[in-house]
Structure formats: structure tokens, C-alpha cells
Design a protein that fits this description.
This is Tetratricopeptide (TPR) repeat protein. It comes from Sphingobacterium zeae. Helix content is about 75%, strand content about 0%. The chain is an all-alpha fold and about 550 residues long. Among the domains are: about 130 residues, Serine Threonine Protein Phosphatase 5, Tetratricopeptide repeat (Alpha Horseshoe), CATH 1.25.40.10; about 90 residues, Serine Threonine Protein Phosphatase 5, Tetratricopeptide repeat (Alpha Horseshoe). The radius of gyration is 31 Å and the shape is elongated.
Length: about 550
């Protein structure tokens, strides 16, 4: 444990071997987490340093000031100035003391004295390789540059300090977030660099943690877990789900905390493991709800709800959708947090999930309560797209099509105005559904579905209804295009029945006949009939086969 390194440092301190004590506490990041113990240690070292100033003691005091200033000074700025005093005092005795030099740079960095921080950070990098400081130097030097030359950002990756490599990955992540508009080439390079840093840190941590080499400076189970969390998240983005699951589980085995559980839940959802995702979501709400903010609670409930949907558990899905809406409606309507895009996305999902679950369960739902709640909230937030969508859902269930369309149009307007992409997608999809299914206006419906897709909606059902509308309009190319997209998503759609899939193949096959692509038409119509018998598909298959044979006959004799 870290306590072993701490005990080694205490022993060295008692023997007046301050360099060894500093090595364990600073390079091993082994200062005690117990604030009372750290408080006593700080004043003991401070007294030793006052009696006879020593650069190693100054470095220890400086790191405490940087990371735990509350134990001796509540004012952060005063503590940073004190850290700077200790660092400079230590450097007067040993101008090449790495930790004093680095502490001086960090104190000035957080005091926003950029030139001073740059001076000490550059000196520190001359004394010892540090990818963390190399990234910070780049950020300082480009702080006024909106378009830095990212090709100059090439920090070293050969450190043997797991903590240094892990923190360097975090620093690179800051850069990627700060400069989201950088070129795709540099974004990809820096993302790969971040993954490389996390991977090397993970390997160094793992070697020690799994072999219990407690005297190693890289022994740190909790930071190992944080490294696992970050690396697993990156692997999940790359769709390396099994590796992501393995690594995040290794981290949780060493140190379980809210963020890593949230990450694992999301990985399970992406990996198609809804049962595991539900277990994590329920544990989060039972054990960590006091640590969660409104957004985290609502997104966790949404994850549980969607996972039950993936398993076809509509009773549980309805329960969690109601839980999510109940919590959402308990928040003060004037709280600006309700305008957050993630909350809008989740609440929209709750209404959609509730409607879908009720339909699948054959329930006759009383919409009056939902309507009253939505109207009450709309009075305070008339420009909230999520609430407009939910109000539209209420009108839809009451068969008031025109009023539902008005709500969806308003949701699109305000969603575009506020940059809420998901709300725009859902509102356009819902509008298309009303126009196609209830108002039989396929032309307007197709436009609405295409707009939803154009705004980034890649949901199966949006493609399905776009096919439906295009087919009715004899828009053959669009029928084939959207039908192909819908079919490509079938492996991920567990609830799609064979008759729905057969309909897609039949629409594509029939449209291919009209286009004159008979061989492809035959293939699609055959698949349609294999999935579910349909008289139209059977008749059109005969037509497609007849036309597919003729060109072959003439090619045979005339080349």
C-alpha cells in the first residue's frame, strides 16, 4: 500500500535523510491522505526547515502547499505564494533541485504568472524529462494563439513514472478539449498519443499493483483505477469493447468510485451487455446518489431505462421512465440546469420510452397528469424543446394531430436556436410520424424524416419511416437508399420482428425493379419471402426474375 512508502519516508526523515524522504513522498506520491496526520507532518517538517533550511524539506512543504493547502492556510493564493517562497529558498541552496524548481513553476502557473511559470518549467525539463511539463509549456506559450501549431506538441513518452505518464495523458486531453477545432490529422495524432500515455501508465501501474511490490514508487492502486477508467473510456470510443471491459474491471477491483462505475455502465451499454449496465446503474443510484448532480442522476436513470428496452423488459422500462420524469419534475423549473442538452436528451427519451412501453404492454395510459405537468412547466419555460416534445406526445396520445404538430414545430425552432441537436432530431422524427401515420401526408412526412436524418438522427425507426414514405411516393432511389441504411442496423435492433425486416426488403426489391436493377431486386425479394410471406413480394419476384433473365440471353448471343 501507499502507507508502506509513507513509512519508508518517515523512517528516512527520522534519520535526517531528507533526500530519501523526499523521494518517497514526492516521486512516490505517498503523502498521507489523512488530513490530521498530514497536518502534524507538515508542522514537524516546517519546524525542521526553520531550524535548518534544506531544499528537500522545502520541496516537501511546497508540494503540501500545492495539493493540501487547507491544512495550514485556507487562502489558496497565500498558500501558493508560500510554496514559491519555499521553492526559491531551496533553490538558493541547490539551484539544480528538480522538485523545488517544479514547485516554483507550478505555484506561478496557478497564480497565472505565465512568464515566471515558463521560466521554472523550462529549467525543470532541463533537469529531468517531464511530459506533463512539456504539455504545460506548450499551453503557456500558445495561450494567446487560437490556432497553435500542434505539430510542435510532441512530449516525451519514455518516463518510468506511471503517475507522470497518466497526468500527461490528462494534460493532452485538456488540449483536445480546449482546441476542439484543430485539424482532424492533429486531433487523431494527439488522441493516439493520449492513449499511448494512458497505456504505458497502465502497464507500469499494473506490473506493480498485481505483483504487490509495495516498495515501488509506482505502487498506487487508486491512481491505477483512475488510469484504467480513462484508458477504458478511450478504448470504448474505438469500439474495443472487450478490452475496455477487462481494463475497467481491473480498475474497479482496486478502487471503486462513482465515475469509474458510470464509465463501466456506459461501456456495457455500448458493448450490448444491458443486464450488466442495469446492475451498475442500480448500484450507482443506491450507493453514490449523494455524490451525483442532477445531470448524472437523470442520465443514469436513462441508461437503466434504455437497457431494459434492449432486453425487451417493457414493464421495467415503463417504471424507470416514470422514475426519470418524476425526478425531472421535482427540480425547480427555473433552474437553468434543465436547459442542459444532456437533460433534454434524457427527458425526451423518457417520454418516448414511456409511450413505447405502454404500447408494447397494451396499456391504456391516462395522459391527463402528464399533460398538466407539461403545461405547468411550459408556463415557466416556453422555449424548452424537451417540454415541447413531451407536450406533443400528450396531444399525440389524445389524437390531437394538429396540436401535436404545433408543439413539434416549436421544439424544432427552439432546438435549432439553442443548438440542441438531439431535440431537433426527435421533434422532426415525431412530426414525420404524425404526418405519415395519422395524416397520410407522405410528401411532408418524408421531408421531415430526411431533415431529422440530416441533423444526425441515425435511429433505425427514422430510416424505416423514411423508407415507408418514399415507397408511397414512388421515390425509388430514396427507398433503396434509406432501406439499405435501415437494414444495415438490423443486427443491433433486437426488437425488430421478421415481418418488419421483410417489408424493408420487399420495398427495396420493388423499387429496384422500377429502377431496372433486376438481379439486385431478385436478391432482396427472395430474402423478404424467406423472412415472411407476402403476396406482393412473390408477384414482384416473378417480374424481377423474368426481366433478370432476358438481358443475360441477349448478352450470350450478341456480346
Amino acid at each position: 500500500m501507499k502507507d508502506t512508502l509513507h513509512q519508508h519516508a518517515l523512517k528516512a526523515l527520522a534519520e535526517d535523510n531528507y533526500a530519501v524522504a523526499a523521494k518517497f513522498w514526492l516521486d512516490g506520491y505517498a503523502l498521507p491522505h489523512n488530513l490530521e496526520e498530514l497536518h502534524e507532518l507538515f508542522y514537524h517538517i516546517d519546524n525542521l526547515n526553520k531550524a535548518s533550511i534544506d531544499p528537500n524539506l522545502c520541496a516537501i512543504l511546497g508540494l503540501i502547499a500545492l495539493d493540501y493547502n487547507e491544512i495550514f492556510e485556507s487562502n489558496r493564493e497565500i498558500a501558493l505564494e508560500k510554496c514559491l517562497d519555499w521553492a526559491i529558498g531551496g533553490l538558493k541552496i541547490d539551484p539544480h533541485h528538480y522538485h523545488c524548481c517544479r514547485n516554483a513553476g507550478s505555484a506561478l502557473y496557478w497564480l497565472e504568472d505565465w512568464d515566471g511559470a515558463l521560466h521554472y518549467y523550462e529549467r525543470s525539463c532541463q533537469l529531468r524529462s517531464s511530459p506533463v511539463l512539456e504539455v504545460r509549456i506548450f499551453r503557456i506559450m500558445n495561450r494567446h494563439n487560437a490556432y497553435p501549431d500542434f505539430s510542435q506538441l510532441r512530449p516525451s513518452v519514455d518516463s518510468q513514472s506511471a503517475m507522470e505518464l497518466y497526468n500527461a495523458g490528462v494534460e493532452i486531453d485538456y488540449v483536445l478539449r480546449q482546441y476542439a477545432g484543430m485539424s482532424e490529422v492533429e486531433n487523431l495524432r494527439l488522441t493516439e498519443l493520449k492513449i499511448e500515455l494512458y497505456t504505458q501508465a497502465y502497464q507500469l501501474f499494473r506490473t506493480v499493483v498485481f505483483t504487490e511490490q509495495t516498495n515501488s514508487l509506482n505502487y498506487d492502486p487508486h491512481t491505477f483505477a483512475m488510469c484504467c477508467n480513462n484508458l477504458a473510456r478511450e478504448l470504448n470510443f474505438k469500439e474495443a469493447y472487450q478490452d475496455a471491459v477487462t481494463i475497467v474491471n481491473e480498475g474497479i477491483a482496486q478502487s471503486k468510485f462513482m465515475v469509474i462505475l458510470l464509465n463501466r455502465m456506459y461501456i456495457y451499454m455500448c458493448a450490448g451487455m444491458p443486464k450488466n449496465a442495469i446492475m451498475d446503474g442500480e448500484e450507482l443510484l443506491q450507493e453514490y446518489v449523494e455524490e451525483m448532480d442532477v445531470i448524472t442522476i437523470i442520465s443514469t436513470i436513462d441508461g437503466i431505462c434504455l437497457s431494459h428496452s434492449d432486453m425487451g423488459q417493457y414493464k421495467e422500462m415503463l417504471y424507470w421512465a416514470d422514475q426519470g420524469l418524476e425526478y425531472y419534475q421535482s427540480v425547480n423549473p427555473s433552474d437553468p440546469i434543465l436547459q442542459d442538452e444532456e437533460i433534454v436528451r434524457c427527458v425526451t427519451n423518457f417520454y418516448i420510452s414511456k409511450s413505447k412501453a405502454a404500447s408494447m404492454l397494451g396499456l391504456d395510459v391516462d395522459n391527463s397528469a402528464d399533460s398538466e405537468q407539461a403545461d405547468s412547466l411550459l408556463e415557466n419555460m416556453p422555449d424548452n424543446p424537451s417540454l415541447m416534445i413531451s407536450r406533443g406526445e400528450s396531444f399525440l396520445r389524445d389524437k390531437q394531430w394538429e396540436k401535436a404538430l404545433e408543439c413539434y414545430n416549436q421544439a424544432v425552432h427552439f432546438g435549432l436556436e439553442k443548438g440542441m441537436a438531439r431535440s431537433v432530431q426527435v421533434a422532426l422524427y415525431n412530426r414525420g410520424y404524425v404526418l405519415e401515420v395519422h395524416m397520410k401526408d407522405s410528401e411532408s412526412a418524408l421531408k421531415s424524416f430526411e431533415q431529422s436524418i440530416g441533423h444526425g438522427n441515425t435511429d433505425f425507426w427514422c430510416y424505416y419511416w423514411a423508407v415507408h414514405s418514399a415507397y408511397h411516393l414512388t421515390e425509388n432511389e430514396k427507398t433503396v437508399h434509406y432501406g439499405t441504411l435501415a437494414i444495415s442496423m438490423l443486427p443491433e435492433q433486437q426488437e425488430i420482428t421478421d415481418d418488419i425486416a421483410a417489408e424493408l426488403y420487399e420495398h427495396i426489391g420493388t423499387s429496384l425493379i422500377d429502377i431496372g436493377h433486376y438481379t439486385e431486386a431478385v436478391k432482396n425479394l427472395q430474402i423478404s419471402l424467406e423472412l415472411c410471406y407476402n403476396r406482393i413480394a412473390e408477384d414482384n419476384l416473378k417480374i424481377a426474375r423474368a426481366n433478370a433473365k432476358e438481358p443475360g440471353f441477349f448478352r450470350k448471343f450478341f456480346g
